[in-house]
Amino acid sequence: MDKVVRSAHEAVADIGDGASLAVGGFGLSGVPETLIRALFQQGAGGLSVVSNNCGVDGGGLGLLLAAGRIARVTGSYVGENKEFARQYLAGELEVELVPQGTLAERLRAGGCGIPAFFTPVGVGTLVADGGLPWRYAADGGVAIASPPKEVREYDGREHVLERGITTDFALVRAARGDRHGNLVFTKAARNFNPLAAMAGRVTVAEVEELVEPGVLDPDAVHLPGVFVQRVVVLSPEQATDKPIEKRMVRTP
Length: 252
Description:
By secondary structure, the protein is α/β, with parallel strands linked by helices.
């Protein structure tokens, strides 16, 4: 039941080339920076990543992206990462863009064992009709386009079929966790981290604070330990390393 491993490097050691990863975080909030850096040093490539966004230039998943170690991204947002946009438009990276709420539900569905679901989001657009560029060709044309999806009518409204997502591994960050893998997230870090953790067959969580089993109020647990296989305890320096995506200051 004690899921704590000695280091981030040990926790990601078996992530091999071509693995699929669900990675938590929203912008730079709640990004598992320590695990991503360990994976960067470990050297795995050809990765398929599912994440709301792909970090920023030089931060988060942007580290792996800039090194050419990510082959495919399923996400909702390309902005704030010029290298991401460059690779996508140059045909070096395959990208499946998914409406943000749909992405969240696809992760949750995969974690709950639901293979697919119908949603009205995307009906009447390329999301349902197909044709979204997944990969561009060198000449700027579309090399791979999204296929059309099944559409059905329920209660007089059309809905599109979306598949649940499961991945080989998941990397997430939590504010608190115990040795059994029960996790508590803070504010915006709760947006995608629990869902990413549910979707991974092997989920690795880095935690800012480790407590003993029984300390966490069961009603305060955001993700039960059944979804977590490995826990990495961050050092004080790692726990306070929280880069700011856009620094805003108020005029006096």
